[in-house]
C-alpha cells in the first residue's frame, strides 16, 4: 500500500497569502493518478486537482498542483476566505487507493 | 447533473452488519469509464478508502477491511451497496459514496451518511 504523508499538519495564514501544501508518497506515484480534495466542516470533500496538475471543473485558477514521483504540491496563490478548510491528497492508481492525513488551512 | 445519495441505518449494534445503499441519479451506473466507491471518515479523522465496484459487478476492497466488506451493484435500480459485518465502535464514521472516473479520481460525492455503532 502506498502511504501518503502530508505536511504541514496545520497552516495558519491570512487572506491574500500564498499557501503551499506538500504530499509525499512512500513509493512512486504516477502523476496521472494523484488528486487533491478540499473539505469544509460538515461537507463532503470536493475534487480540486486531478492528474497532479489539472484543475477540476469550476475550480479557480488560484489553485494549482505540481510534482511527480514521490513529491507533490498544492499551491493556493492568494487565499480567499472560502479557501479555509482541510485539504487531502489521494493516489487513485494501484489499489488500495490511499489518502494523506490532511492539511488544515486556518485563518491566522 | 449527477447526484449520489446514501441511505441506510444510522445506528448499528456492535457485532451486527452495517448496510448502506447509494442511489445514483442524473446518470447511469452502467458506465465503463467509472467505478463506484465507498469512503469513510471517522469523527475528526481523515479519509479511509473502503473499496469500489464496477457496473459489471467486479469489486476490490481495502485489505484492511476485506474480510468484512461486500460491495455490490444493482444496475436495474442504478444503485450500489455496502455491507460491513461484525462492526465495532471503530466503524463509527460518515460513509460517503462516490464516483471515480479513470484519470480524474473521485469527481462526485454523496453528502455522506453518519453511521454510529453503539448498543
Order of H and E elements of chain A: EEEEEEEEEE
What is the CA-atom radius of gyration of chain A, in angstroms?
13 Å
| Strand proportion of chain B | over 45%
Query: Helices and strands of chain B: which structural class?
Result: mainly beta
Q: What's the number of helices of chain B?
A: 0
- Name the quaternary structure: heterodimer
Low-confidence stretches of chain A: none
Alpha-carbon distance between the two ends of chain A = 35 Å
Q: SSE order of chain B, as H and E?
A: EEEEEEEEEEE
Largest sheet of chain B: 7 strands, mixed
Helix content of chain A: under 10%
- Mean pLDDT of chain B, nearest integer? 96
Q: What is the terminal-to-terminal distance of chain B? A: 39 Å
Structure overview:
- The complex is a heterodimer of chains A (about 110) and B (about 120).
- Chain A is mostly beta strands and about 110 residues long.
- Chain A has strands spanning about 5, 10-15, 20-30, 35-40, 45-50, 55, 65-75, 85-90, 100, 105.
- The mean pLDDT of chain A is about 95.
- Helices cover about 0% and strands about 55% of the residues of chain B.
- In chain B, strands 2, 4, 5, 6, 9, 10 and 11 form a seven-stranded mixed beta sheet that branches. In chain B, strands 1-3-8-7 form a four-stranded antiparallel beta sheet, with no helix packed on it.
- In chain B, a hairpin with a 5-residue loop joins strand 5 and strand 6 (about 60).
- Chain B is globular, with a radius of gyration of 13 Å.
- The interface of A and B includes residues 45, 51 and 99 of A.
Amino acid at each position: 500500500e502506498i502511504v501518503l504523508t502530508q505536511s504541514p499538519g496545520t497552516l495558519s495564514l491570512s487572506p491574500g497569502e500564498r499557501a503551499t501544501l506538500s504530499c509525499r508518497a512512500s513509493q512512486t506515484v504516477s502523476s496521472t493518478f494523484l488528486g487533491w480534495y478540499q473539505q469544509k466542516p460538515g461537507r463532503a470533500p470536493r475534487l480540486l486537482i486531478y492528474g497532479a496538475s489539472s484543475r477540476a471543473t469550476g475550480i479557480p485558477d488560484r489553485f494549482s498542483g505540481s510534482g511527480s514521483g514521490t513529491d507533490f504540491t498544492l499551491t493556493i496563490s492568494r487565499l480567499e476566505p472560502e479557501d479555509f478548510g482541510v485539504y487531502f491528497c489521494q493516489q487513485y492508481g494501484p489499489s488500495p487507493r490511499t489518502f494523506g492525513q490532511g492539511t488544515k488551512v486556518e485563518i491566522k | 447533473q449527477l447526484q449520489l445519495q446514501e441511505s441506510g441505518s444510522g445506528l448499528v449494534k456492535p457485532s451486527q452488519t452495517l448496510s448502506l445503499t447509494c442511489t445514483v441519479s442524473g446518470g447511469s451506473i452502467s458506465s465503463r469509464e467509472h467505478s463506484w466507491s465507498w469512503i469513510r471518515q471517522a469523527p475528526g479523522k481523515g479519509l479511509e478508502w473502503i473499496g469500489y465496484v464496477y457496473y459489471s459487478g467486479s469489486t476490490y476492497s481495502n485489505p484492511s477491511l476485506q474480510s468484512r466488506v461486500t460491495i455490490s451493484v444493482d444496475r436495474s435500480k442504478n444503485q450500489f451497496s455496502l455491507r460491513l459485518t461484525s462492526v465495532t465502535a471503530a466503524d463509527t464514521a460518515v460513509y460517503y459514496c462516490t464516483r471515480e472516473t479513470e484519470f480524474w479520481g473521485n469527481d462526485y460525492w454523496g453528502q455522506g451518511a453518519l453511521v454510529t455503532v453503539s448498543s
